[in-house]
Amino acid sequence: MKRQYKILIGIILLLAAVSGGFALSGNLIHHRIRILYSLDQKQNDQAIIDLIDRAQDYVYFAIYTFTKDNIAEALIRAKQRGLEVRGIADRGQSAEDFQQPIIQKLIAAGISVQTQTHPDGIMHIKAVVTDQGYAAGSYNWTSSATTVNDEILEVGTDKYLRDQYLRVIRQVLAANEGGSAVVSGEQVVTDGGLKTYSYTEASSHIGETALIEGKVVEVFTSSSNTTFFDYCSNYKSCPFSAVIFSSAKNKFGDLKQYQGRVITIKGKLQSYQGRAEIVLTTPDQIVK
């Protein structure tokens, strides 16, 4: 009887130890993670800034919409401290007037900002990871997301979770290497003094504002409602394309009318995935 009693006591103690271990583990995780609801304090931006300011080695970010200047300043401070600072933003959002000032400010400070290179879909992640922690959720880095919208932001220092976010953002950055976030705004240029090049020559004139002439083989609209003027039957090997983002399409009317036609467009040539392109934001960029 005594023997059975000792075994029972041993089992009870073992169960207590195991449950205590789980409780301790859960308590530690609890203290490493915070879930912030935007309208409680209306300061989700400060949680992002605090995380960036505590970083000592690197800051990687992926963000869909970015207009908060104070977060941009925190990223610039991290760069000035000698940290590696890299990020990716959505290509369509980065072409918008409301986001371009932030993107240009980061690039001017020496911060690498990429965009997605795939023609379909958007870059919809909203996360930042540093050597000290991570923050991710539905929260865009905007004033409305900070003080008006219902948003969730998870902020944590748990190493396992941090490493998972780090792996994903590094994967996204590597997969979209070469996608440039440098997109000019609406281009107010006249035809006078501009040189005309064939679309086959466009890649030799990156950075130049010019007239590009060629036959539009196909007018293609992706699932994200971005329209491309393709000048070759295989767009992947074509040296040039023109792009109209969804936000500007209502200015143009029927874009299919240009398919099969030789047209001349004007604008600043930029590099995208190793090929030349012009972003069309106003109809007067299509000269003829």
UniProtKB/TrEMBL annotation:
The keyword Hydrolase applies. GO terms for molecular function: phospholipase D activity; RNA endonuclease activity producing 5'-phosphomonoesters, hydrolytic mechanism. Residues 48-169 form the Phospholipase D-like domain. It comes from the Bacteria. It catalyses: a 1,2-diacyl-sn-glycero-3-phosphocholine + H2O = a 1,2-diacyl-sn-glycero-3-phosphate + choline + H(+). It holds the Pfam family PLDc_2. Its EC number is 3.1.4.4. Belongs to the phospholipase D family. This is phospholipase D. It comes from Candidatus Doudnabacteria bacterium RIFCSPHIGHO2_12_FULL_48_16.
